[in-house]
MPN domain-containing protein (Idiomarina ramblicola), 157 residues
Amino acid sequence: MHEQNAEYVTNEPMTERDVLNKASEILETKFLKGEGFTSPSAAKDFLRYKLAHQKREVFAVMLMDSQHRLIEYKELFFGTINAAPVYPREVMEEVLQKNSAAIILAHNHPSGMTEPSEADKRVTTRIKDALNHIDVPVLDHIVVGQDTVSFAERGLL
């Protein structure tokens, strides 16, 4: 676990992508069996570092324990610049394999536009309905673009 004021030193130049990757590693370490994701803003910050730099659509899941601490962040589906196929069955398999108590769904919009599409809403409902059968709540679905949008904050869950 890193201290809150830990110092990081690099001996080589870093690109913007290198810096973002390092920031996401630091955040992942912080939340991996450490602090819980107790607010949409913490999850949005974490996911912004993970997904904002992607050039194609990526659909990911944050698998969490009963205290909403991160068990694993997993990128499951990869698509084109504007769509990725998403299969609820594969999400459920990951949830069961990792013994997750809750999840947060996330994907990026490479266009930068963060408004959830009707397809985004439908896939969220399908995954939520599937996981409801095994008592695993979908806490949020976050769309990352130039900004971030939380389904939970918008009342879409």
Summary: Residues 16-154 form a domain with the Cytidine Deaminase; domain 2 fold (CATH 3.40.140.10). The chain has five helices and five strands. The radius of gyration is 15 Å. Strands lie at 58-64, 70-78, 102-108, 138-144, 148-150.
